[in-house]
Every structure is written in structure tokens, then in C-alpha cells.
Amino acid sequence: MKRRVAKLVGKKEFGFFEEEIRELRDDEILIEMMSVGLCHSDIPAYFGTSRMGFHRNGYEAMERELVYPMELGHEPVGKVVQIGKKVTRFQVNDLVTGVAAGCFATHMIVSENDRWMVIPSMERPIDSCLGEPMMCVANIVQAAAPKLGDRIAVVGCGFMGLMCIAGLKGEALGQLTAIDFIDTKLELAKKYGATHTINPSREDLEDAMYKLTNGKGFDIVIEITGSLKGLNSALSIIRIAGRGKICAPSMYTRGEVFTEEMAYYMMYRSPIIHVTHPWYSENYMQTLEQGVEAYKKGIFPTNELISHRIPFDKIEEGFQLLEHNPADYIKGILTFS
């Protein structure tokens, strides 16, 4: 039996490979892919500058020396089609999600002890049950940990920002403000729970913050634009008296310059800058399960936010969307049928 794999063969260039699928070890499972989410954290590898990998001492770290061909993809949904004879957590025909490197392939072999889980029975679309990004959002929402009456702002209303708004709307907040330059995304933010919106192209961000918060600033800001300009915006609207919290799950890889203005904001506002990537979670699998459960219950509108479904054979089109982020793009997935 063979599988088909899409691998980077150079900067911004994918190639397809056919590979024999080896026999399973006793603790392994074979997964047939249904869909894989496209994630901006793979863009540095796509650009040929760096990738998520390992330090020479064995821990996870940035890798600068890229070796081609290179496998990418880490937001899978699939079906178990074969199991090793000692596997107990999974059965054939289980629908599964989780996180694993190298998911841009028709099939994968993984250990049953890897970060995968069985998707519970639900009425929502299974190919949209992207466990990895939903785990990320659950982690961000839990780390934000708002108190009664807190004023929260979310800077950036792409897929992850909108999911954070949806996850926070049930809290007893004083305000939940969405900030973006695209009005259609602000309208979606209101649909999913934002009480206020700000478009910085039409009004001064700090003036709008001052009016909305009675001159106090936001208690918590979630910055999820992927740009230091977004972090600058977060610093400019965080609590003025100090000790506000900025949750920063953004991956800052654009080679931008940390500005003098940001330094002043950090000095005068003295916020807690809380990096909330998945590695912050104390129990990854538990947070993964909580994210999937939030989707099952309709808290996370993941399926509604998938704006582009790209056939696996057209993976380069998917990465072009990631690179250029057209106004109608929110989240893309590769499909395998």
C-alpha cells in the first residue's frame, strides 16, 4: 500500500511523492487523512527562513538550517484504518484529531501514545473538528482567565481571534471589544459575542479605548495578528494604571523592528505579557479534549469560519492564500476526497 505526501522541495515550492507504507509496529495506528488545517506558523518554513524543529540538545526549538524535501502540516482530522496488535486507545474506523508533524499526506503512521484523540459523536461537521487550533484557543481563553467585569479586547479578528471571542462570550465580562481593519470581520466578531468593535482605519485606537473604558484601558488584551504592529496596538490600549495582561499567542516572524513607542508603552503601562502558545498548557491532552468538546457544544464555531476548502493536490494555492491573506480569507483546510 502506498501513500501520497506533499513536501516542500524548495522555497515556496511543493512536490508530491509516493511512498510505501511500512508495516505497523505493535503500538502504532495508521490514519487516513480527511482534512488538514493550514496554519500561519508554517509560513517561515514556506518562505525558507526557519521551521519548527529541535535544538541539537533535543528540545523543541527553531531550526534555521532547512533540509529538503521537508514535511509540514500539524492540524489533522482523519480516520483510523489499521491498528497494531497492542493498541488499546483506538479502534479501526475511529475518527480522530490531534497534532502531529507531517500531516500533508494521504496517510500517516503514529504511535497510540502521541497527541491524538477519538472525536466524540456529534452532529457538527467532522472535517472541521481541527483539534490542534481548538486546543490553542482553549489554552488562550483559560490563560486569559478574566474576572467578573473585566474589559477585554481582541486585536485581530482572523480565525483564532474570532474563536477567542466565541470562547470568551459566556464570561461575565464588562466588555468584549474586537479590533480589526476589515469591517466584515468585525461584523463576524459581533455575531460571535463582541459587545463593541473598533476599526483603527476610521478612528484613533487610543481615543476609542479611552472612551470605551472610561479612561482606564483594557484589563486583558489578546493580541493575535502575528505582527509587532498588533503588539504595539495591544500595548497602547492595555490598562493605564499598570498590571494589565496581554495574552500573546502570535508568532512574530516578519522581521519587524521593536519600536521606541513600544518601549514607552511597556514602561508606562507595565503590563504582564503572557505568551500563550500550546506549550503553556499544563495538560495538553486535557486542553485538546476541552477544545473539541467546545466545538461539539457549539461554543467554537470552527466549521462556520472555514472560508476555503482546498483540494490536497492544490496545496500551493492554499499557501498562497496564507501568504497574501485576502479579505475574504479566514481559515483554509486541505481536503482529501
Question: Which terms would index this structure?
Answer:
alpha/beta, 6-stranded parallel sheet, 7-stranded mixed sheet, Quinone Oxidoreductase, Chain A, domain 1, single chain, 2 domains, 337 residues, Rossmann fold
Can you describe this structure?
The chain is of the alpha/beta class. It has two domains: 2-119 and 306-335, Medium-chain alcohol dehydrogenases, catalytic domain (Quinone Oxidoreductase, Chain A, domain 1, Alpha-Beta Complex); 134-278, Rossmann fold (3-Layer(aba) Sandwich), CATH 3.40.50.720. 26% of the residues lie in helices and 26% in strands. The chain has nine helices and 18 strands. The chain has helices spanning 43-47, 131-144, 159-168, 183-191, 205-212, 228-237, 260-269, 284-296, 315-324, and strands at residues 2-10, 13-20, 28-37, 51-54, 60-63, 70-71, 76-83, 95-98, 107-111, 116-118, 151-155, 175-179, 196-198, 220-223, 245-247, 272-274, 308-311, 332-335. The strands form four sheets. Strands 3, 7, 8, 9, 10, 17 and 18 form a seven-stranded mixed β-sheet that branches. Strands 13-12-11-14-15-16 form a six-stranded parallel β-sheet, sandwiched between helices. It has a three-stranded antiparallel β-sheet with strand order 2-1-6, with no helix packed on it. Strand 4 and strand 5 form a beta hairpin. The longest helix is centred in the middle third of the chain and has 14 residues, at 131-144. The chain is globular. The model has no long low-confidence stretch (mean pLDDT 97).
